[in-house]
Amino acid sequence: MQLIGKNAFTWCENLTEIILPDGLQMIDDGAFSNCGALTSVTLPSELRFIGANAFRACSSLKEISLPQSLHTISRRAFDFCVSLEKITLPDKINRVAEGVFSHCENLRKVTLPAGVTEICAWAFAECYELREINFPQGLQSIAEVAFINCRSLVAFDLPISLKTLGRQAFVGCSSLHLVNMPRRLEKQVKPTKAFHKLSKLSINFLEDGSAE
Hints:
By secondary structure, the protein is mostly beta strands.
């Protein structure tokens, strides 16, 4: 079997464990959405694609190991996985899709691979407990409201490679007190309101990789 089809197991409310077979390459849109009792998922090493909303609202899922074969995780694939605590994206992922981990209220740690160049809108929106995330060198774009209301973020460095900072990208990150970021983005900060009304925040603008 290479494919699990659209909405194949959606709303299987008593499903607690999934062990997917070797050879599976694609989980289509909504395949396991709204499986509220699901606590354990084993993905095969050949998996390449996870579709939109595939695990959306699997509200009991605390962790999931994503195989290195995976190159696409589609929009809102893990939206409203409110028990998810940490996630490490595989090396082949270069785009963090729209809303892919939004509303993961207990997500504390995110590890992004070196090849990520784009973080799309709502990607980590309202991840209230998010404390730790790395922004890899090579990242070029953080879209609008990507981290809105991530109110446990305290400090981070944005890489020199970053070219675009989206509108209200970090609005509502009320604990944020320090950001190091590229000088080229200084003119984007006010028009985009990326850090609007964050009273505790200090921003250091970087020149040639060093904070002033």
